[in-house]
Amino acid sequence: MRIKVKLNEMIEESGLRKKHIAKKLDVNPTTISGWISGKRRIFLEDAVRLANILNCDVNDLYEIVDERKEG
């Protein structure tokens, strides 16, 4: 089992720009890109703030993938 970050999909659904989100979070836009690519982990506090900005639940930012079913 692994956790897939669905941040890019949630940002697209929100219609917000990554630069706008980064500014609201007081982070660099490259941090947002790192979260999307999986190269950087999202701390819980940032995930909660992201969910608030994107008007979603924190759980909406992630998907649990069962690798046994992926084949």
UniProtKB/TrEMBL annotation:
Organism ancestry: Bacteria, Bacillati, Bacillota, Bacilli, Bacillales
Matches recorded under Pfam families: HTH_3
Domain HTH cro/C1-type intervals: 7-61
Transmembrane segments: none
Name listed for the protein in its UniProt record: Helix-turn-helix transcriptional regulator
